[in-house]
């Protein structure tokens, strides 16, 4: 896969995601950022260190949040989770 398309109906915008952003998007539903980084590392462990995975996940989340594709959900006190917009 070279890229993925994500549509945000509320703004009628279409975004082209690279494989890294697509992976973060697919894994983010209900996971915390550290859980996402761990899952990302599990998929890429031989290639990237855990610290590199944390940086990539942080950048992916910031991009996806900025595009309005995901939003933070504060379901548990002091623990921010991210989920896909409905």
From TrEMBL:
Taxonomic superkingdom: Bacteria
Pfam family, one: PqqD
Protein name according to UniProt: Coenzyme PQQ synthesis protein D (PqqD)
Species whose genome carries this gene: Usitatibacter rugosus
């Amino acid at each position: 896969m070279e890229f993925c398309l994500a549509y945000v109906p509320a703004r009628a915008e279409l975004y082209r995601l690279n494989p890294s952003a697509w992976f973060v998007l697919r894994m983010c539903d209900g996971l915390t950022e550290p859980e996402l980084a761990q899952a990302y590392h599990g998929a890429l462990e031989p290639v990237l260190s855990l610290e590199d995975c944390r940086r990539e996940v942080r950048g992916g989340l910031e991009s996806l949040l900025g595009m309005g594709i995901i939003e933070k959900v504060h379901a548990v006190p002091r623990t921010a989770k991210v989920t896909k917009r409905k």
